[in-house]
Amino acid sequence: MATERVWAVGVVLASAMAGCPRPPPPAAPARAVATVDGQPISALDLRRELWRVHGKPEPGDASRQPLAEALLDHMIEEKVLAAAAVAAGITVTPQQLEAQWESARDGYRMEDFQATLYAQMQTPELVKARLRDRLLVEKFLEERTRDQPKITDDEVKRYYEAQPARWRVPQQVRARQIVVRTVEEARPLLERLHKGEDFARLAREHSVAPEKDRGGDLGFFPRGVMPEVFDRTCFALEVGQVSDVITSEYGQHIFQVTEKRAEQLRPLSVVDAEIRDVLRQARRQDVEDRLIRELRMKAVVVRDDDALRWAADAEGVAQDGAVAAPGGG
């Protein structure tokens, strides 16, 4: 499947800070942590993005440096792609940007949304700028990957035959159960079942389990989905056979297996559409990766490691959340 990229449209907002919202502190002049063809990414922007993606740091958190380096690499990539989108004549309309802005705010009360932005050192203007760039990138990649060769039947067949385990459906059983609280309740019910009374009717009348209204029907299940005691009991029963009283942490159970399905392979005809989708996604990902490599090779990227260390430095964050940017040009 295609990997979700950092520039995917939409902004995931973290939980709001406790307390009343305050306006964000004014952005201090910050030197660039990197330039991409002369276009800066400020150290303050990188710190903001760190807070948005990974939360506010704790003092002395040494893990921020590699996180900052990885995030900067994504920001460089995004800037390269956004510039390529603009050069290709791709635009974002005000209506498209507003729709993404409304989606980012969806589910928030206004005061909570403002508090969330403040907690991440964000402003509406900054968020909209990032949304605009991500929409540009999304449109650019969609345009460049739209016209791909058709997936052939031979490709589908080769993929199917190369991964037989993926299409294997394990053995399954379908079972009913009656659950009561005590052995004293369960034993008389088991005797009535042995005399031929209907399992589903007794389940509806006496079971305390949620599926009682379905006559105790648990549906089909493979090994490993239900509690271990279910597997141990039900997979050992023959179709129609009723178990003894089985004790578990949930109570006293009586099981009856009603159907069994042997392990089987899903046929190619059933999974054909799924395989084609996987192959299309993989082909698109290959095109995207190749395009990004080519654009990165052409771009002139200059990094400032001192500014990068400042952006990642948890000790440089004041108690009230305000930041001072590194000096220099």
Describe what you observe in this structure.
The longest helix has 31 residues, at 268-298. The protein has helices spanning 43-54, 64-87, 94-105, 110-119, 124-145, 153-162, 183-194, 199-206, 228-234, 268-298, 305-312, and strands at residues 32-36, 39-42, 168-169, 172-180, 217-222, 246-248, 251-261, 264-265, 301-303. Helix 1 runs parallel beside helix 11 (305-312) and helix 2 (64-87) packs across helix 11 (305-312). It is 47% helix and 14% strand. It is of the alpha+beta class. The strands form three sheets. A four-stranded antiparallel beta sheet has the order 5-4-7-6, with helices on both faces. The protein has two domains: 32-149 and 275-316, Triger factor/SurA peptide-binding fold (Orthogonal Bundle), CATH 1.10.4030.10; 171-262, Roll (Chitinase A, domain 3), CATH 3.10.50. The radius of gyration is 30 Å and the shape is elongated. The chain has eleven helices and nine strands. The two termini are 43 Å apart.
**Mean residue pLDDT:** 84
What's the N-to-C terminus distance? Answer: 43 Å
| CATH topology title of the largest domain | Triger factor/SurA peptide-binding fold
The strand order across the widest sheet is 5-4-7-6
**Count of DSSP strands:** 9
* Percent of residues in helices: 40-55%
CATH class of the largest domain: Mainly Alpha
By CATH, the superfamily of the largest domain comes out as Porin chaperone SurA, peptide-binding domain
Given the helix and strand composition, which structural class is it?
Answer: alpha+beta
Label the CATH architecture of the largest domain.
Answer: Orthogonal Bundle
Tally of distinct domains = 2
Query: What Rg do the Cα atoms give?
Result: 30 Å
| Overall outline | elongated
Strand content: 5-15%
Number of continuous helical runs: 11
* Contiguous runs where pLDDT drops below 50 for at least 5 residues: 1-29, 317-329
- Helix and strand run: EEHHHHHHEEHHEHEEEHEH
Largest sheet: 4 strands, antiparallel
